[in-house]
Amino acid sequence: MRNNVTSKKSIYLLLHISLLFSSLSGVCSKMASRHTGNIFSLEFVFWFGLVFVIMFGYAVIWQQILKRMPLTVAYANRPVTLIWGIVWGALIFGEKITWNMIAGALVIFAGIYLVTGDNSEKGGERV
Fold first, then answer.
1. CA geometry: angle 113, 61, 54, nearest 5 deg
2. What is the pLDDT of residues 39-76, one digit of tens each?
3. Which of 11, 1, 3 is nearest to 127 (CA)?
Protein backbone atom coordinates (compact mmCIF):
# COMPACT_ATOMS: atom_id res chain seq x y z
CA MET A 1 0.00 0.00 0.00
CA ARG A 2 2.74 2.46 0.98
CA ASN A 3 4.69 1.70 -2.19
CA ASN A 4 1.55 2.40 -4.24
CA VAL A 5 1.11 5.80 -2.56
CA THR A 6 4.76 6.66 -3.21
CA SER A 7 4.36 5.65 -6.85
CA LYS A 8 1.27 7.86 -7.25
CA LYS A 9 3.06 10.80 -5.67
CA SER A 10 6.06 10.36 -7.96
CA ILE A 11 3.81 10.25 -11.05
CA TYR A 12 2.01 13.38 -9.85
CA LEU A 13 5.37 15.08 -9.31
CA LEU A 14 6.50 14.01 -12.80
CA LEU A 15 3.27 15.46 -14.19
CA HIS A 16 3.95 18.85 -12.65
CA ILE A 17 7.61 18.85 -13.68
CA SER A 18 6.52 18.11 -17.24
CA LEU A 19 3.96 20.95 -17.10
CA LEU A 20 6.67 23.31 -15.86
CA PHE A 21 8.88 22.10 -18.72
CA SER A 22 6.02 22.69 -21.18
CA SER A 23 5.50 26.22 -19.94
CA LEU A 24 9.08 27.03 -20.89
CA SER A 25 8.14 26.67 -24.55
CA GLY A 26 6.12 29.87 -24.17
CA VAL A 27 9.20 31.63 -22.83
CA CYS A 28 11.26 30.40 -25.76
CA SER A 29 8.64 31.45 -28.30
CA LYS A 30 8.49 34.93 -26.77
CA MET A 31 12.27 35.13 -26.93
CA ALA A 32 12.12 34.04 -30.59
CA SER A 33 9.54 36.75 -31.31
CA ARG A 34 12.12 39.35 -30.34
CA HIS A 35 14.17 38.27 -33.37
CA THR A 36 11.48 38.09 -36.05
CA GLY A 37 13.13 40.81 -38.13
CA ASN A 38 15.35 38.12 -39.60
CA ILE A 39 13.94 34.63 -39.22
CA PHE A 40 17.24 33.18 -40.40
CA SER A 41 19.21 34.82 -37.59
CA LEU A 42 20.99 32.51 -35.20
CA GLU A 43 19.01 33.87 -32.22
CA PHE A 44 15.63 33.23 -33.85
CA VAL A 45 16.56 29.74 -35.02
CA PHE A 46 17.92 28.90 -31.56
CA TRP A 47 14.84 30.03 -29.60
CA PHE A 48 12.34 28.70 -32.13
CA GLY A 49 14.21 25.38 -32.33
CA LEU A 50 14.20 25.17 -28.56
CA VAL A 51 10.40 25.37 -28.65
CA PHE A 52 10.35 22.20 -30.76
CA VAL A 53 12.87 20.42 -28.53
CA ILE A 54 10.87 21.26 -25.40
CA MET A 55 7.56 20.22 -26.92
CA PHE A 56 9.03 16.95 -28.22
CA GLY A 57 10.39 16.12 -24.76
CA TYR A 58 7.10 17.12 -23.18
CA ALA A 59 5.13 14.91 -25.60
CA VAL A 60 7.23 11.87 -24.72
CA ILE A 61 6.89 12.46 -20.97
CA TRP A 62 3.17 13.23 -21.31
CA GLN A 63 2.52 9.88 -22.99
CA GLN A 64 4.31 8.07 -20.16
CA ILE A 65 2.26 9.97 -17.59
CA LEU A 66 -1.00 9.07 -19.34
CA LYS A 67 -0.07 5.38 -19.09
CA ARG A 68 0.15 5.67 -15.30
CA MET A 69 -2.48 8.26 -14.37
CA PRO A 70 -6.18 8.72 -15.04
CA LEU A 71 -6.76 10.96 -18.05
CA THR A 72 -9.11 13.28 -16.14
CA VAL A 73 -6.50 13.94 -13.47
CA ALA A 74 -3.74 14.63 -15.98
CA TYR A 75 -5.83 17.00 -18.11
CA ALA A 76 -7.30 18.77 -15.09
CA ASN A 77 -3.77 19.76 -14.06
CA ARG A 78 -2.75 21.20 -17.44
CA PRO A 79 -3.96 24.76 -16.65
CA VAL A 80 -1.04 24.96 -14.19
CA THR A 81 1.02 25.97 -17.23
CA LEU A 82 -0.91 29.26 -17.25
CA ILE A 83 0.24 29.92 -13.70
CA TRP A 84 3.83 29.12 -14.69
CA GLY A 85 3.37 31.58 -17.56
CA ILE A 86 2.51 34.29 -15.05
CA VAL A 87 5.58 33.41 -12.98
CA TRP A 88 7.91 33.37 -16.02
CA GLY A 89 6.44 36.64 -17.27
CA ALA A 90 7.22 38.34 -13.98
CA LEU A 91 10.66 36.77 -13.44
CA ILE A 92 12.07 36.83 -16.95
CA PHE A 93 10.22 39.61 -18.75
CA GLY A 94 9.47 41.95 -15.85
CA GLU A 95 5.72 41.81 -16.40
CA LYS A 96 3.45 43.03 -13.65
CA ILE A 97 1.27 40.52 -11.78
CA THR A 98 -2.22 41.94 -11.34
CA TRP A 99 -4.97 41.02 -8.90
CA ASN A 100 -6.95 39.59 -11.80
CA MET A 101 -4.07 37.21 -12.55
CA ILE A 102 -3.96 36.12 -8.90
CA ALA A 103 -7.74 35.61 -8.92
CA GLY A 104 -7.42 33.57 -12.10
CA ALA A 105 -4.68 31.42 -10.55
CA LEU A 106 -6.92 30.77 -7.53
CA VAL A 107 -9.78 29.75 -9.82
CA ILE A 108 -7.41 27.34 -11.61
CA PHE A 109 -6.32 25.79 -8.30
CA ALA A 110 -9.94 25.50 -7.16
CA GLY A 111 -10.90 23.83 -10.43
CA ILE A 112 -8.06 21.35 -10.17
CA TYR A 113 -9.08 20.52 -6.62
CA LEU A 114 -12.74 20.08 -7.57
CA VAL A 115 -11.86 17.72 -10.41
CA THR A 116 -9.06 15.75 -8.78
CA GLY A 117 -9.79 16.14 -5.05
CA ASP A 118 -11.24 13.38 -2.90
CA ASN A 119 -13.48 11.62 -5.37
CA SER A 120 -13.70 8.34 -3.46
CA GLU A 121 -17.42 9.00 -2.98
CA LYS A 122 -17.81 9.04 -6.76
CA GLY A 123 -16.11 5.68 -7.12
CA GLY A 124 -13.00 7.27 -8.58
CA GLU A 125 -9.41 6.69 -7.69
CA ARG A 126 -7.53 9.36 -5.78
CA VAL A 127 -4.09 10.24 -7.07
1. 105
2. 889 999 999 999 999 999 999 999 999 999 999 889 99
3. 11
